[in-house]
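Internal tracking record. Fields below are filled automatically when a chain is submitted to the structure queue. Please do not edit lines marked as system-generated. If the sequence contains nonstandard residues, flag them in the REMARKS field before resubmitting.
Queue: standard
Priority: normal
Entity type: single polypeptide chain
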Amino acid sequence: MSFFKRIATPLIQRGIPVIPVNPGEKKCTLEKWQDRAQLGPAMIDFWDEENPAYNVGCVAYTTPGGICILDCDVQRLPQRIEAESGHKFEPTLVVKSAGKGCLHVYYRQTARSIAIGNRKVGDLFDFQCNRKYVVGPGSVLAETGKTYTIFQDYEIADFPDWLGDWIESNSRTAKKSAGCKMSPVRDEFDMDDLMDFYGYDWRQMGTWYNFVSECPVAGYQHKSAKLPGFFFDGEDLGWNCWASGCESNGWSAGRVIKALNEKHGTPYPHLIWPDNTMEIVEAGGIGGNFATEAVSNDVSEGAIGGERGNPGKTKTPVKIRLKPRYQALTATGETISSMDGKTWRDSKGRTICVTQQQKR
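SYSTEM-GENERATED OUTPUT FOLLOWS
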């Protein structure tokens, strides 16, 4: 059995979705890999034929039976967590990395882990929860010649609530000290890819991704603050230049990225921010004045029936684009009372959907 097939097969047998990772590396260059992780042998065979020297990646998804991984960035982090939380880790699958020799602790998703989402705290840990991956056991890192090895071989345990408490507590501390505006990003957002795209020299220091040669907004290196950069903790993106005279002080990450796109001449090609599109199902035959009503209720574009504000009947599915401060809570056909929510109804008084203002 070839290398990739030999290391990938035991993982899919455990119910772990896998992707191919570049031979001898940690990076996956498979296009749209976030949507292409596999549990079946057919694609394993295909990727094996494509390059039998691939390493393997283990992908976290917030789906029933999916996995999440506590990716430790320092040695003996589990011992520290036990000491601080007063709890002990139950047996589960644990893998030792080939880089710094830190641990990857695997869990099955629970409501608690899904609620936490992706998190990143400095050089302490990454919590890979959704559409993120770690390099899997059996993979070899060429720069060290070492192999990712199984450190504890147990059935994958359910994510414990107490660990969620510890992760959230440490995440809040990191954000509080960042001192910048935060905006949530898409689960599949790749910070390294964003930094590489613009061609500046940069380095990661914990949750900060710093430009080391110049401030990309000013076009030169500030004397008073030489490491402007983005804050990214796996969930939220922010910016801080630190130099008191820089025009980018107080800017959001989105405004900085817009400026970088203008300087680069080509906009960053991947989506960064969550899509505020809500798909309404079972909404066929809606007519009357719902389109006009929807537009007046904070729909920013393209409501029902084609032209903005033009009433008309429609077929399923229907998409309504909400202003960013609103998010969809439910689909049509259900009467839901929601505190601080907005209920939209058609011309006959039927409930279409309910939205709720996001907390900022």
